[in-house]
């Protein structure tokens, strides 16, 4: 059977749920969703289908699955190591210290653990920023985990974490050539559940000449591009978005990650060229050294951002925490306690409904898959979640968007469907518990290989 074929062929009719469609033509209403052959067949009221299994949706919210546009999945077995780490401590301990010791089996189990945690918390699509391309076998192992987990994945092929210091901050090394093999032999189908993008370093992490060469390669292969920019003082000095605009390389096929110290003018350049952005609100709040979330400044520039986790070594891998942290930073802006880049008058604000939009349809747009997912729209692939609103932590659900953002957690996610496959139902994830035992064993092996004592 092809990787891309749904495993669960049953027809499902969800009845009487509060639908948060993220489709501007449909809006929010109490109604029904019919799923068949991996797609959303119909969204409306009083639907019926004699062949479908009926799922009672009363007392539940149904919405598109969350879309995480930037997560380093390979670190899934290293979660929660350093919530108080600075950016330099994270780079030293994980990318430089442990990354060089990863074997393909460690990448596989790390990606699988990250995928399963994502699915359990309602993330149906992840853009896997994979800077663990230590060998072709490492990349193949990461991709295989995405197929195995059932998640929708955009595999962003990056650089190695061997000789990690030689690949960042002024590196003169061009992007690993193995991306050609992956494009031609492994992920050539852009309609598949697992697809390929290019995670490039850009002028901030490489050089202008290398950046231009890498961008030409990605576009030759027909790949969308992601790029980390605005990283602390270095990002403010380099102004990568400006460099790309001035050299004619800035375009709508790019997603810029973080943008914490990118200038307001750069964000306007981003918007003018139709590019997208990914805000890792929780990570940027927790980790000193990057700068603060650029959400409000992006809105001021005309960009509705997507949201992302970044690394589970620092923050929880669910979108509920990301939404809350992103909102918390906005409230610091309003209280006059924000970082220096946000101390300007009349910054636009966002609310809980906006955050759900950032976490769904805007994520799909950033990943270039909004024609396939991101909203409850007939004809799109059936990526959706159902959240129980009758759980004690959410009652009474007066404003559903605010209820989900302020109080939701993975335990409230009752059902998860990806491409029509039911991967979580009745609050239970359909996956083997042994994955997390394997993740613990991988963590132990990596610490031993690096000569590090296991944390108490």
Report on this model:
The relative contact order is 0.16. The chain has 2 domains: 12-64 and 375-425, Roll (Urease, subunit C, domain 1), CATH 2.30.40.10; 66-367, TIM Barrel (Alpha-Beta Barrel), CATH 3.20.20.140. It starts with 11 loop residues before the first strand and ends in a 7-residue tail after the last helix. Strand 15 (413-418) and strand 16 (421-425) form a beta hairpin. The protein has 456 residues and is α/β, with parallel strands linked by helices. Helix 2 (104-120) crosses helix 16 (434-449) and helix 9 crosses helix 11. The chain is built from 16 helices and 17 strands. Strands 1, 2, 3, 4, 5, 14, 15, 16 and 17 form a 9-stranded mixed sheet that branches.
- Total number of β-strand segments? 17
Distance between the termini: 45 Å
CATH superfamily label of the largest domain: Metal-dependent hydrolases
Mean pLDDT: 96
User: CATH topology of the largest domain, anyone?
Assistant: TIM Barrel
Quaternary organization = single chain
Q: How does the helix and strand content classify structurally?
A: alpha/beta
Q: Can you give the helix content as a percent range? A: 25-40%
Whole-number count of domains: 2
CATH domain class of the largest domain: Alpha Beta
Unreliable spans are: none
